[in-house]
User: Fold this.
Amino acid sequence: MRPPCNPSKFVADAVKEIPPSGIRRFFDLVSGLEDVISLGVGEPDFITPWHIREMCIHSLEKGQTSYTSNYGLPELRDELTRTYYRRYGLDYNPSSEILITTGVSEALDIAIRTVVNPGDEVIVVQPSYVAYVPSVVLAGGKPVIVSTHRDDEFSLTAEALKPAITDKTKAIILNFPSNPTGAIMVKEGLEDIADLVVENDLFVISDEVYECLTYEGKHVPLSSLDGMKERTVMLNGFSKAYAMTGLRLGFAMGSPEIIHSMMMIHQYSMLCAPITAQIGAIEALRHGKDEVARMVREYDRRRHFIVRGFNRIGLECCKPKGAFYAFPYIGNTGLSSSTFAERLLDEKKVVTIPGDVFGQAGEGFLRCSYAASIDDIRKALDRMEDFVDGLNQ
Amino acid sequence: MSNSLTFVPVTNMDEKIRHILEILETDARTSPEEIASLTDMSAQEVSQAIAKLEETGVIRHYKTIVDWDLVGENYVYAVIELKVTLERNQGYQAIAERIYKFPEVRSVRLLSGNYDISLTVRGKSMKDVAFFVAEKIATLDQVQSTSTHFVLKTYKEDGVILHEPETIQRLPVSF
Assistant:
């Protein structure tokens, strides 16, 4: 008989280094509970608009189930070129400067792998989406954390960024509008960042997946600034704007050199993004404008509602200008983010995400998604008020 | 014209006004306080805005969608298509007015195509509706012909789906 083995010894060191996601524990806590209201969800509560689903169904009926070009369907890339020219005057060549990916997640992974050599430093702005640090680590890079603060409404300032830059810094990952803070960058602020980037000859991976969910002012793509198009790869997708999360469709826009290199990885790891989702995405870009506007107005109302609610019950909350998250401050209660969130779930059955999951800079805050019905938000706020009142007694 | 309301077209609609109208269109009973919290306004501002929208005829009417079947009132609905002849100097307004004054008539529309006017009629029985059409509508001088289609089932009414709505199954926690 051959001897038994311990399979975990085969797991690579880099994978072992990935810290356990704080979310896992929450998952286990939530499962089995009844009457739970969740503000912990990072996806729209809308179903993909019918005209998009209908187009996907039609394509399946017609038998469109084959591979597409590695870069993605040409019609989809053409439509993206037109869309970004119309929105921002950006001019991306559909045949060499756009890559269709399986969600922004894939685009993020291959963008990082494309630019990072082992030992390169990559600046990650926190609080931020949980995938950035592990993706940098898996590529052999070294994440360097820069924190944003409530006083700046969680926008990134050049002053905060500057000290983090060393001669080993290769790239910066930006995410505005931000998950979890809802922060956006105004043009002047972005210009300051762009100056620093150029001065230090850096590259930027700009995750703009919440672009369409901007409620005050207009979204400014970093690549629309003078001299930034070649230095930036813009990552974006259909999940948030068109409520297509499970269809897994994203894209990257950048210089032909970067996009081609990303395609080199993509062709061997993913081959192409799912064709059904790509066909749905063409329909979304062509005819989805009114539906997006309708969903954005709905989110906007919930945004006002939830922010006013938090401030009423004594949890200070500045008004997020993008995405669909409120990020109230709970530090005054004397509880840490994770204790607050766990006790809130345990005692009042409301799911929120502790801010420190998104980096140390998120300690003292909670991420509360308002991609939930007004009724659920109202109930959650009532329960949170009870909880906070209980703490004060 | 008998129903001339002072209609003031709102151009370049204010975003706040659009929010108020969308909220009320979904649920006309939403209180000014609640609308205020959804739009970052004060309740007083909301009330004033609504009063103005009512005054100017932008908000025409508040109504309730009732499922009469559930209380045992089994109404019968029919769509009636009419061909009409017009008299000199008279457009469709006169015949439309004449028809819409009957309470049995729930909607009146002027159409392009093979027919001129389409009505929705409500009655307590098929006989009721058939008699109403035969006696009151078909006998009008201007009406050339009628074609009655009884409604067997309504799936969606005025933007509201009348059966189980679609629900979305999401993970309770995700990033």
Q: What stands out?
A: Chain B has two domains: 1-64, 68-157. Helices of chain B lie at 15-26, 32-39, 43-55, 93-100, 126-137. Residues 43-55 of chain B form the longest helix (13 residues). Confidence is low (pLDDT under 50) at residues 1-10 of chain B.
